[in-house]
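EI: anyone free to look at a 339-residue chain?
SC: sure, send it
EI:
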Amino acid sequence: MARDPVLTFTEEGIYCPAGDFHIDPWRPVPRALITHGHSDHARPGMGRYLATRAAAPVIRHRLGDVALKTIEYGETRRIGGATVSYHPAGHVPGSAQIRVEVGGEVWVVSGDYKTVDDGLSEPFEPVPCHAFITECTFGLPVFKWTAPDILAAQINDWWAANAAQGRISILGAYALGKAQRLLRLLETGIGPVFTHGAIENTNEVLRAQGITLPDTTRVTADFDRKAHPGALILATPSGLSGPWAAKFGPDRSTAFASGWMALRGVRRRRAADRGFIVSDHADWEGLNSAIRATGAERVFVTHGYTSVFRRWLEEQGLEAHIVSTEYEGESLETAEDAA
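SC: here you go
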């Protein structure tokens, strides 16, 4: 007799019948297990939340005084008829894959993840399982991320060249995760570093929980560009253009740090002078290596190049399915992360 699946896919989100809980639900539910603090995974309106201790400060910052309990990586918790544990996803600080075991069958929900250690997030750890629910935001072979040392050199060379001409550099990145990751790559001797308010708010939360970041200054309405020639401004994607960017003068250089920079024409669409190829999501090789490491026989793909990636997995001999969710991944169209 076939057993009921460990996890099902409902209108509210990914659901565990044995434990009566949802994972990263997009509609209000009584009990939500949260993989990380990005706004498409940690949403308001849930009765109770469970997240890692490291993810909790950002979640509280975003959602307020919610009923949030925490769990440590690797800690086992029994919820109803399910055994649950959280494991590092390498996406942003505190991000987790959630392992769910029912009757000896193990399913893992990846949330968002990357397999390269960025020196900021807890490094990704593969979790053996029978079924793996994976994002595939960048599920095409064209997506290959720049090595960290080369990326650092590219960004700092761009900034230094602008600074030598007295130009301000504006670098666009998402407020939680990527902005702090890039901040730690900067050679701050080149010039001062200023931040968009949404990024600085997140910096303050992460610093308060013991994460070391270089010094930054919040951009305020009275920012005087003439007083800070050669400065670098870390901005949200929406801050690269429009009224917010205008305060830095017409002679400014803009760049966008995203996995989407691997595609031709995207930099032009973002109206950026430079594009740096980097993401807090797994690239093509990262996705494939992570899936292989799980040993999973069934793979459910969500948010990204799902059709192409499913066919690829089937060609590799895996049972693959597409799952419709409301997760966005690193959306090219998303203006900014609300964290």
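EI: Residues 166 and 229 are 5 Å apart (CA to CA).
SC: 👍
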